[in-house]
Design goal:
Blueprint lengths: L5 H7 L10 E11 L2 E7 L6 E3 L3 E10 L9 E7 L6 E5 L2 E2 L4 E7 L5 H4 L4 E8 L7 E11 L30 H25 L5 H7 L1 H23 L3 H32 L3
Parallel strand pairs: 3-10
Antiparallel strand pairs: 1-2, 1-4, 4-8, 5-6, 5-9, 7-8, 9-10
Helix pairs in contact: 3-5, 4-5, 5-6
Length: 274
C-alpha cells in the first residue's frame, strides 16, 4: 500500500497555525459514475459522501495565495482513517497557473485497508516552499467507500515460525562408481606387477637382493602393500581426504625404498649377476 508522501505529512504538520496565506475558493465535490455526474455539492455543503464501485469523487477548486489565484507547489487530497492512522494522498494532476485545479479520487484507487474502514476523513491540503503558510481543510469526516476486496494482512507484517536447519549427514560410504574405479585400478596394477615379476623375475636372486639392499626391497614391498590396504579402507568407507593423507605418508617411503631397490638391481646388472 502506498502511504502519504513525505511532503504531504510535512504540510499537514503546519495545520495548527492560526491563519494560512493559502486558501481555496469556488470548491465543488461531485460524484461521477461511469461518466455521468450523479451529485454535486459546494465544499461548505458536503456532509457525507458515499463512493460506490466504478465511481469517482471529483474535486474542482481554485487555489489562492492570499491575493489572487495562483498555482501552489503541492495540492493534494488526503483520505485518512482516524481509528488506525492510515492515510492515502491523491495529488492534483493538472493545476493551471491561475490556480484552477482538479483532483479525481476513483474507488478502485482507494487502498483495500481504507475501503474496510467504517468512515474516512477527506481533507484538502495546499502549500508551497516559500514563506506562505500552508492551508488545510476537512471537507467531511463521513466518507464511505464501497469495499470490493478483502484486506489480508501481509505476511511480512506477521511473526514467522522459528526455522530449524536440518543439515544432511555426510555419506557413510563412498559412491559405488568411484570405489569400483579405484579398486579396479589397484587390482589391475597388482596383476600387472605380478605378471611382470613372473615373466622377468629371478627367484634365485631373491636372497642376493635382500642381502644387497634389505631396506630397499622390503620397504618397496611394504609400501605396495600399504597402498593396497589404503584402497581397501577407502572402499570400506574411509573419506577421500583421509585416503590422500595416508598416501602422502606412504609415498616418501615408497620413493626412498624403491630408489634403493632399483639401485641394487642396477648394480647387479652392471656386474652381470642379474
Amino acid at each position: 500500500m502506498k502511504w502519504t508522501q513525505v511532503g504531504v505529512a510535512a504540510l499537514c504538520g503546519f495545520c495548527g497555525l492560526a491563519q494560512a496565506d493559502w486558501n481555496v475558493k469556488n470548491g465543488q465535490l461531485s460524484i461521477v459514475a461511469r461518466g455521468t455526474t450523479v451529485e454535486t455539492k459546494d465544499f461548505d455543503d458536503v456532509d457525507n459522501v458515499y463512493l460506490p464501485a466504478q465511481s469517482t469523487i471529483d474535486l474542482s477548486f481554485e487555489t489562492h495565495d492570499g491575493k489572487k489565484g495562483f498555482r501552489a507547489h503541492q495540492t493534494v487530497a488526503v483520505l485518512s482513517d482516524e481509528s488506525t492512522g492510515l492515510q492515502y494522498s491523491f495529488p492534483a494532476g493538472n493545476v493551471k497557473p491561475n490556480g484552477k485545479a482538479k483532483i479525481a479520487i476513483a474507488q478502485k484507487n482507494v487502498p483495500i485497508a481504507l475501503q474496510a474502514a467504517k468512515e474516512l476523513t477527506l481533507s484538502l491540503v495546499v502549500g508551497s516552499f516559500d514563506d506562505n503558510k500552508p492551508f488545510r481543510t476537512e471537507l467531511t469526516k463521513r466518507v464511505i467507500v464501497e469495499q470490493t476486496g478483502t484486506h489480508i494482512k501481509p505476511n511480512r507484517l506477521a511473526a514467522k515460525d522459528e526455522i530449524y536447519h536440518l543439515f544432511r549427514q555426510d555419506p557413510s560410504r563412498v559412491p559405488a562408481p568411484i570405489a569400483l574405479f579405484f579398486a579396479g585400478g589397484a587390482i589391475a596394477l597388482l596383476v600387472l606387477i605380478l605378471g611382470f615379476w613372473s615373466t622377468t623375475g629371478n627367484l634365485n636372486a631373491l636372497s642376493i637382493a635382500l642381502q644387497g639392499s634389505p631396506s630397499g626391497h622390503i620397504g618397496l614391498l611394504l609400501s605396495l602393500f600399504a597402498y593396497e590396504v589404503s584402497f581397501f579402507r577407502y572402499f570400506r568407507g574411509t573419506s577421500i581426504f583421509d585416503t590422500l593423507a595416508t598416501f602422502a605418508i606412504i609415498t616418501p617411503f615408497a620413493l626412498f625404498s624403491g630408489s634403493r631397490a632399483l639401485s641394487e638391481v642396477k648394480k647387479r646388472r652392471d656386474e652381470g649377476r642379474f
